[in-house]
Amino acid sequence: MQQVIQQDTSKRDTSKIKTKNNSDLDKKIEYKATDSVRMSKDKNIIYMYGNARVVYGDFELDADYIRYDQKKNVIFASGRTNPKTKRYVGRPIFKSGTEGSAIADSLYYNSATTRAKVFGVFSEQEGGFFSGGQSKKQADNELHIKNMMYSTCNLPHPHFGLMISKGIATEKQIITGPVYMIIEDVPTPFALPFAFFPKTNKRTSGILLPTPGEDASRGFFLQNAGYYLGLNDYWDAKILGTIYTNGSYEATLSSNYIQRYKFNGNINLNYASTKNGIQGQEDVGKNFRVGWSHSQNPNASPGSTFTASVNVSSSTYYRATAATSSYDQSAIAQNSSTSSIAYSKVLAGGLFNFSTALFANQTFSSRQIDLQLPTFNLNMSTISPFDSKNRSGEQKWYQKITVGYSLQGKNTISTQDSILFKPEGLRQLKTGFEHNIPIGMNFTLLKYLTFSLGGTYNEVWNFQTIDRRYTTFTDGSYTFRTDTLSGFKRAGSYNLSTSMSTKVYGKTKEFKNLGNIQQLRHVMTPSVSFTYSPDFADPSAGVYKYALNQDGQRIRNPSTGQDLTYSMLEGMAFPGSFGGRQASIGFILDNTTELKVRDPKDTTGTGNRKIPIIQGLSFSGTYNFLQPTRKLSDISFSGRSQFTDKLGINYNGVLNPYLLRDSTNNGIFVQKLEDSRYFWQGGKIFPRLQSFGFSFDYGFNAEAVKKKNENYDKLKGQVEKQGMTPLQSEQLNAINRDPNAFVDFNIPWNFAFQYSFNYSNILGVSQITNTLNFNGDFNLTPKWKFTFNAGYDFKNSGLTPMNIAIYRDLHCWDMSINWIPYGAYKSYTVTIKVKSSILQDLKLSKRQGFYNTYQ
Question: Of 12, 53, 601, 832, which is the most exposed, with the fewest CB atoms less than 10 Å away?
């Protein structure tokens, strides 16, 4: 029995007070209030004001005002009207047992019978919301409801819903009287005299209505009609279909799965039959796509990970189906796709890391497919074998020696997709292993120079080699046939290297008469390396063979005059690094330049900030002393300049140090050839620019994008704090994976463009390509948004296909009109659909181009 705690009403104690429930000696009522608690003269009625709280067993109640009649065992709770704002605040919030919490205008609860009568309730049940009306809870947990609305809108006063005139809700079902649809407080003729709803407390299966539209080549269509299957709390599935008036059709099976705190993913299977051409003479194309994405929570299995990103399709799938009817121009124009499934695990307390993966790469234009089934890597962390864990003082020179090890193995197939699973395709399987053992030592000299010494041993094991049969002709030309032979072949190589690097700080230039500009600073990071390796290209080393003609005689290389050789491991799983004798110097020069300017936002007048003018402008190349000619390699350069927070430029290029010469035939010019003379030997001042490219993108409203991310992070934190359902978790993951798949009404306007320029000059033949893409959006009103996406084709002097869309934010509904006004994928669609609660809170809408991925 609980001890009864009396209350001294004269002091108006606001601390927690406990009393005994006369109806049940095994339970107690706990209550408190922050403003005041008082009792009636006979002490049978307790009044609680301001953030009042009552707990009785598994029943919890919070409200601005609570009255407890101890004699009748009746608890009454309500809010209050704020005299300043005239708004009703402090509504009762209650929870009973394992049921979710609910909000009401007022309620009565009998602690003896556990019956309750609730007015103006608002509660969430598995993504749906009950609001308004009256409800009465019986002792057997049946709930009698009257004039209550059910909706997926998460507002207390929803925009639409089903009005239930009368009904009874049990643990597993809801039985109602007349039911009718209400939209924006307007009753509609969509009604039923009675209804029966199974209450499974989990996802429910149902019909998915199609989206109508018109495609310029395939005709009118009904898109993504189908059925949703709520399999259980961890799996769901959708079966969708699209039909066109010209006879084309598409079918999709998609499924999402999730186990909280462990993993989540989705599977998509697509099939399309596309008809093109004149009726009766159509060209029918059959296409498919298989997609699978899987990610593992890092905390689910510490030390191991498993991921999957599979995107396998027929070569014409995206072009024939307009990217699964999304009309996404980047997806339609893509020429390749990559898939991978990977697993990794840390072994031996972190000393080893093992990983294995399956890779697939498709090139749609050539129908080439490259598979690695599978690969694996075993990497050992670098160790210092001569150092001691208990060492005291500085390391001796031999204690700085480090050793590492890595093992890699793979099976590869490179063939056409049409013969992949046929015997001639499977015969192209290549298998091999590669071992690498790096040995090194680092030390500092004269405080500023960092040196490293070391070498690497590389050994490859292959289970296939090649053999070539050459045929020579009277004019000195030749041809050959390559045969792949089965059999084990091992070969090893090694190199020795040393390198040195330092930093050179340029003299700081100070400015006094350039406004806010104060200083210019330049930092150079030069690095020089030397590498030596023996001649592994000599046939005596066992990797290369002499090219022999049909008479068994050696063939001369027409360009060098030397005997022609070839590697037996060419094109194998691990061809290794078996080049000629090398003694080369490599050089890298990295440059950084920045300005220090006064910060106009600093009110003290002493603040400043740095503006990077050049970030990482690097030049690199090599010089091989043992190469007979053309010892100097091409000189590559790349860098980035960030002028403002919104504008940054990337650039790269190649400088060729050799002159060009004319190749003639009987005095007639044929083509340019590369000479062995350097550019200064021909009187040139600068090396030849062989290629150059730069690109930049600019967004005019970066602050708006920042606010969108802050809004997303805020909602994510709130939902995680309250606890996410699997469906909410997947919705947030979808937004996080690709924010561009959603229209954000929180951003009033935005405009961005991307430009890229590429120049190449190969043997005197120059070519220029440049592309411009731009996109933007703006809110016509706080609820209407206009978006567009297009580009400019400089080669054809015209616009690329444009996508225009208008979105209407109806809070709990989406309405969108998508229009492609011209081009091969000319079309339009009109869509109206219900939003999820997550998108309602974020004020996001899904773009038409991404419905098939995230719907």
Answer: 601
